[in-house]
Amino acid sequence: MAKKTPQRTFNDVLALLGGQRFDVAPAQEGAKRTPNAVQVRKYGCAAEIAAAPDGTVEVLARPGWLLNGEIARLLDRGYQKFIKTSKLEIPATADHLRAIHEFSEELNEAIGATSLYNQALGTTSNVYHYDRVKGRDE
Length: 138
Fold this sequence. Notes:
Elements: H1 10-19, E1 23-26, H2 30-33, E2 38-42, E3 45-51, E4 57-67, E5 70-71, E6 73-76, E7 81-84, E8 89-91, H3 94-111, H4 117-121, E9 127-128
Parallel strand pairs: 6-9
Antiparallel strand pairs: 1-2, 2-3, 3-4, 4-5, 6-7, 7-8
């Protein structure tokens, strides 16, 4: 039988992240949507979290590479993964993918989120867009 991980409160998670050398600062993007949102950063990656109404943690912006101050999403075009912001798109390197994966795993563990098999194997993309599918938008 699987062990249940106890739900951590938002303040417990912030204390835990600070102890694990995450940089914790007020969120820039999430602050517009949710009061008291924070951005956590490590390894060149970032995510935005806030307190959920029940006191646990809500992820506002999925973990991604921090590019020009914006959390970039990971885009899979079938032949290559790309890191994309609203203004810039660059090919993702193995170092980018390793950092995003490690950051995501550490953040999920600190939050007490369920670790999913496909995510534990490697980095999953936000969007999958294959070049052989014609007429399909992002």
